[in-house]
Amino acid sequence: MFDQREYGKAHYAKHRDEYIERARKRYRANTASKKAYDAARRVLKAKELADYESRKRKRAPEYRMWQAAKQRAKKKGLPFNIEPSDIVVPSHCPALGIPLSFSKGRAADCSPSLDRLVPSLGYVKGNIAVISKRANSIKGNANAREVRAVADWLAHFEVPA
Predict the structure, then answer these.
(1) Eight-state DSSP code of residue 106
(2) Cβ-Cβ contacts under 8 Å for 110 (sequence gap 6 or more)
(3) Of 160, 104, 161, 106, nearest in space to 133 by CA
(4) Assuming Cys at both sites, which of 38, 62, 113, 157 could form a disulfide with 136, CB separation 3.0 to 4.6 Å?
């Protein structure tokens, strides 16, 4: 009687090197294609993640501004008692009148920025306003008198239109 199992064992023993070589070729081919697949997947995953982060930033800019302010307050030891609902992003900068818009990556001059009206009071209700990054940079740590003095000084150098 023909025993298929015995025949298989004998055939494998006789052609063992061929079986091993075929297995190695399959492994190498699969490994190369798997590496290529994994690399492509990482690129795709990074793009998907970047798109997701971008959508998340656009969906909840007030929350992101609140989160960043909370971290700054903790780092600088400033009082903090605002909620995300306290942050209202207007369409135009109340200080400069320029339209506010969110930029990709690094903040632009027209990006909304959370300002502490009186810096020493911290991020507390009634002491915050959303203005453009440009206006916030101009304001810096200066008070109204200092900003006015710089503006008056600069007016001497302006060329009439």
Answers:
(1) S
(2) 93, 98, 99, 100, 101, 103, 132, 133, 134
(3) 106
(4) 113
118 close to 81: Cβ distance less than 8 angstroms: no
Give the burial string for 118-155 (b: 16+ CB within 10 Å, else e). eeeebbbeebbbbbbbbbbeebeeeeeeeeeeeeeeee
DSSP state at residue 84: G
What pLDDT is stored for residue 128 in this prediction?
A: 93
Q: Which long-range contacts (CB under 8 A, 24 or more apart) does 52-59 make?
A: 54/104, 57/102, 58/102
Q: Round to whole Å and give the CA distance between 9 and 101.
A: 73
CA distance linking residue 64 with residue 71, whole number of Å: 11
Measured between alpha carbons, how far is 143 from 149 in angstroms, rounded to an integer?
10
Q: Encode burial over 33-46: b for 16+ CB neighbours within 10 A, e otherwise.
A: eeeeeeeeeeeeee
Q: Pick out the chain residues at pLDDT < 70.
A: 1, 57-58, 158-161
Q: How many helices (H) and strands (E) does the chain have?
A: 5, 2
Q: How far is 118 from 101, CA to CA, in rounded Å?
A: 25
**Which pTM was predicted?**
0.59
